[in-house]
Structure formats: structure tokens, C-alpha cells
Amino acid sequence: MNTVYLLLGTNEGNRINWLQFAVEQLDLYCGNISAKSNIYETAAWGIEDQPDFLNMAVKLETDLSPTGLLKQTNDIEQKAGRQRTVKWGQRTLDIDLLFYNNEIINTPGLSIPHPEIQNRRFALVPLNELAPLYTHPKLDLSVSELLKMCPDSLSANLFSGSQF
After folding, report:
1. Contact between 98 and 57 (Cβ < 8 Å)
2. Is 59 a domain residue?
3. Which pLDDT band, with edges at 50, 70 and 90, does 101 fall under?
4. Residue 44 sits in a domain of what CATH number?
5. Mean pLDDT value of segment 121-135
6. Domains in the chain, number
7. Which among 34, 6, 10, 30 has a CA at the least distance from the CA of 112?
8. How far apart are alpha carbons 154 and 56 in whole angstroms?
């Protein structure tokens, strides 16, 4: 079994429902979600003139390969109506593969660990709930250390709306 950390994000439509949809689909098609973080609300990163995002991290136990998991997560995003028209644009659902075991993968379609994780507070805050001591295989720093050093000034605030 492989241990994978994923980040789920949404800023379009009923955001809570999209996160719940993602968790259900991942559990159904990708493996077993063994832990999930709280939900955080963050201003949009990259293109700032759009609705705030809801983000959460999940820990997934899977027997899928990295490329097999990427295919499944892309299929789940597509089922949610994800349109890939503008980089960093609005989206119903975004599923990022943050870590896959301790592997380092660099192919044209897949980079693990996520190449920008150390620069994105909206990913590190929920991930820190699940795996503060997990060590980034390239940077040799724990998630909690990466969070302390993160240059991103956007705050990730605990979401006070509906949880699931």
C-alpha cells in the first residue's frame, strides 16, 4: 500500500459539496482515505480577482501507481465539471498530489513532491494537521518546518461553515 497526501481545493459553486464529492470519489476509486484535515478558506493565489478557495488535505492509502492515481484524480475533477482554460483560474475542484510515499518523480505530466508546496501556505496549513513530521524527500525539511519558513503571506483561516 502507498501513502499519498493530496490537497483538495475549490472556489466555484457549492464549495463544501465539491470537497465532499472529492472525498467520496477518492474513497470509491482511489483507495482508503485514512485522515482528513479541517477545511480552510484562503484568498485566491496567482489570479487574485476571483472567489476565495476552500482547501483541505487528505491522507490516502492506495495501491494505484502515481500515474494511475493522477489519471483517477483528473477523472474526478472532470466529473466535477473542472475546466482547464486559465492557469490558476476558478475551478469547481482541484486535486493536487503533494507527496507519494517518499518518491521523487519528474515527468512531463507529473512532479512529486508538488514543486511549489514549500511556497504555498494554503497547502501547508492543512497538511500540517495530518503530517507535521513528514519529511519532504527533496528538501529534507518537515512539513512543520516548511510551514514556518513559507514565504506566502496569504492566511489560511479555519472555515467556519459546514463541515462534513
Report:
1. yes
2. yes
3. very high
4. 3.30.70.560
5. 97
6. 1
7. 6
8. 15
Q: What are phi and psi of 31, to 5 degrees?
A: 150, -150
Which structural domain, as residue segments, surrounds residue 47? 2-158
- Whether residue 164 lies inside any domain: the answer is no
Q: 11-15, 20-24, 81-85, 160-164: which has the minimum mean pLDDT?
A: 81-85
pLDDT in the model for residue 84: 55
**Is 41 inside any structural domain?**
yes
**Would you please indicate which residues are annotated as catalytic (active-site) residues?**
82, 91, 94, 96
In a domain, 163, yes or no: no
